[in-house]
């Protein structure tokens, strides 16, 4: 009993047909806009809105703390300060670090920790998926991901009539049967279905051009019409390109084609087949007879992660950076034009155009007392007279100091002659 069970277990199918859903390839047109949005694809629209709201809120909190500590300097000045805080926070976020002053107190320390944690998680999440999303031309993908999405989109799926009953018991009544095992592509191009179920062997023949050659030969012989064979174009008039058909999803069905039937040969044939596979003889025989197998004529455009990003993938990032730089240059050009129109504006201070001008005494606060011009002129004269008197006093002091120094010099010039013992004045 045990030996019989082992024999049934070992006597597996020697060859199987694997069936896949085949649909048209999803062709994405690469436009300038699609290149620009590539750097933003790691986050959705609401994700970017959430990031922007957090950064604006953080800048506003820091601005309020600054206003509370330094006092209100006027509406215009405070708005300019708020804009500067916004720029600083966004700059620190894009740079991956924060410049929040943590030495001022516990409030700034906790704000800095909050901002640093936000930057850590946001930039790590962004970087994790950025490389794969920057690739503009990725692996060939079908119009649907798998057969379940095709069913949800009400696809009609062509399948061999011998398998339709089995497929309908699993996936539902969405299949269009065709008697000819190789008639799936011609039915698809005729518009009878939006997808088809093909075996791996038929997919290899499809990419090798053998199925198209067979359809064209039958049209040329007159056995089928051109509307049935669809040798050159589909029902829309587009050129028939079998390489634009791709597998969607994983394996949906497998059917054993050959296996030993007689009990006496089941065990030895199964073991011989397994031994040929493990020893490499099976692979060597396939390679030696490669010319007997269909060879694909389709050019593979798949890209791997090892290939890296090319200039086209990075073009969106480059354009966005250039736009920001050009915007800054336009602001600088506008500033220069403004200074030419108003040469009295100070040019040494880069923030002079954005600063609030000092109050004019003539058109100042209406509640402030007016200062008469005569009073200002009189005050100026008093200041001038005081400076003149102070200068005269300095002159007299200098003359007195000079006379004192001369007198000291004369006293020091008196010496005693050692010969006659008399005092002489030199």
TrEMBL record:
<keyword id="KW-1133">Transmembrane helix</keyword>
<dbReference type="Pfam" id="PF00060">
    <property type="entry name" value="Lig_chan"/>
</dbReference>
<feature type="region of interest" description="Disordered">
    <location>
        <begin position="347"/>
        <end position="370"/>
    </location>
</feature>
<dbReference type="InterPro" id="IPR001320">
    <property type="entry name" value="Iontro_rcpt_C"/>
</dbReference>
<keyword id="KW-0813">Transport</keyword>
<feature type="compositionally biased region" description="Basic and acidic residues">
    <location>
        <begin position="400"/>
        <end position="411"/>
    </location>
</feature>
<keyword id="KW-0325">Glycoprotein</keyword>
<keyword id="KW-0407">Ion channel</keyword>
<keyword id="KW-0675">Receptor</keyword>
<dbReference type="GO" id="GO:0016020">
    <property type="term" value="C:membrane"/>
</dbReference>
<keyword id="KW-0406">Ion transport</keyword>
<keyword id="KW-1071">Ligand-gated ion channel</keyword>
<protein>
    <submittedName>
        <fullName>Protein disulfide-isomerase A5</fullName>
    </submittedName>
</protein>
<feature type="transmembrane region" description="Helical">
    <location>
        <begin position="48"/>
        <end position="68"/>
    </location>
</feature>
<keyword id="KW-0812">Transmembrane</keyword>
<dbReference type="InterPro" id="IPR015683">
    <property type="entry name" value="Ionotropic_Glu_rcpt"/>
</dbReference>
<feature type="compositionally biased region" description="Polar residues">
    <location>
        <begin position="412"/>
        <end position="426"/>
    </location>
</feature>
<feature type="transmembrane region" description="Helical">
    <location>
        <begin position="317"/>
        <end position="338"/>
    </location>
</feature>
<feature type="transmembrane region" description="Helical">
    <location>
        <begin position="115"/>
        <end position="136"/>
    </location>
</feature>
<dbReference type="GO" id="GO:0015276">
    <property type="term" value="F:ligand-gated monoatomic ion channel activity"/>
</dbReference>
<feature type="domain" description="Ionotropic glutamate receptor C-terminal">
    <location>
        <begin position="47"/>
        <end position="324"/>
    </location>
</feature>
<keyword id="KW-0472">Membrane</keyword>
<feature type="region of interest" description="Disordered">
    <location>
        <begin position="393"/>
        <end position="426"/>
    </location>
</feature>
């Amino acid at each position: 009993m045990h030996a019989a069970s082992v024999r049934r277990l070992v006597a597996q199918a020697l060859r199987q047909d694997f069936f896949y859903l085949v649909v048209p390839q999803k062709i994405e047109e690469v436009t300038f806009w699609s290149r620009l949005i590539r750097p933003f694809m790691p986050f959705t629209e609401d994700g970017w809105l959430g990031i922007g709201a957090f950064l604006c809120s953080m800048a506003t909190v820091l601005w309020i703390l600054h206003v509370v500590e330094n006092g209100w300097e006027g509406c215009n000045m405070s708005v300019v300060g708020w804009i500067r805080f916004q720029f600083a926070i966004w700059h620190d976020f894009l740079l991956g670090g924060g410049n929040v002053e943590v030495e001022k107190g516990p409030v700034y320390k906790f704000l800095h920790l909050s901002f640093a944690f936000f930057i850590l998680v946001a930039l790590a999440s962004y970087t994790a998926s950025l490389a794969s999303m920057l690739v503009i031309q990725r692996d060939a993908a079908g119009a649907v991901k798998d057969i379940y999405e095709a069913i949800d989109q009400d696809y009609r799926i062509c399948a061999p009539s011998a398998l339709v009953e089995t497929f309908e018991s699993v996936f539902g009544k969405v299949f269009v049967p065709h008697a000819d095992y190789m008639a799936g592509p011609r039915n698809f191009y005729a518009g009878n279905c939006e997808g088809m179920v093909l075996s791996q062997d038929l997919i290899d023949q499809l990419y090798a051009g053998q199925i198209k050659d067979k359809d064209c030969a039958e049209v040329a012989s007159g056995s089928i019409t051109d509307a049935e064979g669809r040798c050159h174009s589909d029902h829309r008039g587009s050129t028939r390109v079998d390489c634009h058909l791709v597998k969607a999803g994983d394996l949906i069905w497998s059917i054993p084609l050959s296996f030993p039937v007689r009990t006496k040969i089941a065990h030895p044939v199964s073991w011989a087949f397994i031994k040929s596979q493990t020893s490499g003889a099976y692979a060597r025989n396939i390679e030696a007879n490669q010319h007997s197998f269909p060879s694909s004529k389709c050019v593979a455009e798949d890209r791997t992660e090892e290939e890296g990003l090319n200039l086209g993938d990075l073009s969106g990032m480059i354009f966005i950076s250039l736009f920001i730089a050009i915007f800054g240059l336009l602001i600088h050009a506008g500033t220069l034009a403004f200074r030419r129109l108003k040469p009295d504006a100070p040019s040494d201070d880069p923030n002079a155009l954005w600063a609030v001008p000092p109050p004019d005494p003539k058109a100042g606060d209406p509640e402030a007392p007016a200062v008469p011009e005569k009073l200002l002129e009189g005050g100026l004269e008093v200041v001038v007279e005081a400076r003149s008197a102070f200068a005269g006093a300095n002159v007299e002091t200098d003359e007195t100091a000079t006379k004192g120094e001369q007198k000291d010099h004369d006293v020091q010039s008196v010496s005693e002659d050692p010969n006659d013992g008399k005092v002489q004045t030199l």
